[in-house]
């Protein structure tokens, strides 16, 4: 019994409990509208590798995402995938907050799908990006 607890503790070393505080640290507090600094992401390529629209129910984006991710990894094994949710920066705080909440869940689902396809978690980054227009409910995947 003691040996199995020791093995379990060694396996969990470096793991982090994911709770509301962790999510708030990763994505910012969902109760606050994101600032311009939060929305401004890293310099990204001009065009995304894949744009996944979530305005159609039950869309199966996984086959296209898997094919695109495998092609990107074949070209560059250490490719970094930026999974970005556009947030309407010109909208009121409540609308931005709704986009952040919904977009965070959408981006997490896309990141999980990438990980399922063999992309190492250290090569997947989640983020928000300000969009002065009225973006659709979508997630954009950029590769660098």
TrEMBL record:
<protein>
    <recommendedName>
        <fullName>OmpA family protein</fullName>
    </recommendedName>
</protein>
